[in-house]
Amino acid sequence: APADLVAVRTSTGRTAGTDREEVALVAGAADVDTVVVGGQVVVEAGVHRLGDVARLLADAVGDVRARAAR
């Protein structure tokens, strides 16, 4: 069956030296290496397949605000 999973780097400034049990508590978005959703790789080597997600989100929010202001 397809799987969902997130692989987090454990050698970053936030995660280095952290116990395995604590990684989910200390890791942030920048620490994510790989994301698989339904068996499909969505993030690989820290890069989302859609590109710059922050920019895409900012553009979408800007579009919504512009439409609301009309």
Look at the structure and give the mean pLDDT: 95
Termini distance? 47 Å
Strand order of the largest sheet: 1-2-3-4
- The computed structural class is alpha+beta
Using the CA coordinates, give the radius of gyration: 16 Å
Note the overall shape.
extended
Biggest sheet architecture? 4 strands, antiparallel
Total E-strand runs = 4
Beta content: 15-25%
Helix percent band: 25-40%
Q: How many H/I helical runs?
A: 2
> Topology as H/E string?
EHEEEH
Low-confidence stretches: none
Please, could you describe this protein's structure?
This protein has 70 residues and is α+β, with helices and mostly antiparallel strands. It has 2 helices and 4 strands; from the N terminus they run βαβββα. The chain has a 4-stranded antiparallel β-sheet with strand order 1-2-3-4, with no helix packed on it. Strand 3 (40-44) and strand 4 (47-48) form a beta hairpin. The radius of gyration is 16 Å and the shape is extended.
